[in-house]
Amino acid sequence: MKSKSMKSTMMAVLVPSMLVMPAVVRAQSAGAAAQAQAQAHARTPQERIDAALSAAARADVPAELLKSKIAEGEAKRVPRERIATAVETRLTSLVHAVETTKRAGVTMQSAGELAVTADALDAGVSENALVRVTREAPPERRTVAIAVLADLVRLGTATDRALARVGAAVTSSAALANLRAEVASQLSLGGLSSTLDAAGIVRVP
Question: For residue 121, is pLDDT > 60?
Answer without folding.
Answer: yes
